[in-house]
Amino acid sequence: xxxxxxxxxxxxxxxxxxxxxxxxxxxxxxxxxxxxxxxxxxxxxxxxxxxxxxxxxxxxxxxxxxxxxxxxxxxxxxxxxxxxxxxxxxxxxxxxxxxxxxxxxxxxxxxxxxxxxxxxxxxxxxxxxxxxxxxxxxxxxxxxxxxxxxxxxxxxxxxxxxxxxxxxxxxxxxxxxxxxxxxxxxx
Length: 187
Fold this sequence. Notes:
alpha/beta; Alpha/beta knot; 6-stranded parallel β-sheet; 46% helix
């Protein structure tokens, strides 16, 4: 299971257009690449179902919430407070997306693709807001991933699109290479 986790660092008290637009933008991307979508620390006092209806009423992005509704209907849309001691275990290993990964926790795309192809689950965290992800999450995460592999910082919505797309491309590429190796060895 792969989950795109968006962490609100924008404003934790007041609702802004950036909050519901980020959800509307992330839903079609998550849907297209087979990811779940989890929101953390958004300033909504409503259930996931109420949030789906709210977003559908507020924007035409993502075909007016069609993909968000599909994620919700299939049990792939989640809304949580930011956990203090660790993320929900069903999401698997936590991966902080950053242009400055620590050397100790950095994971390369090819290594990540191998783990995904072995059916390992991951929660990829992206920060919403100019502050980026909180430092505590860098410490809590098992891995740090620079999706560009070049230290290039990406704006939130760009990262929302890039992370699932690049990971999907690498897992597909890795699976194709495994199939070729099996054919060559006669397995």
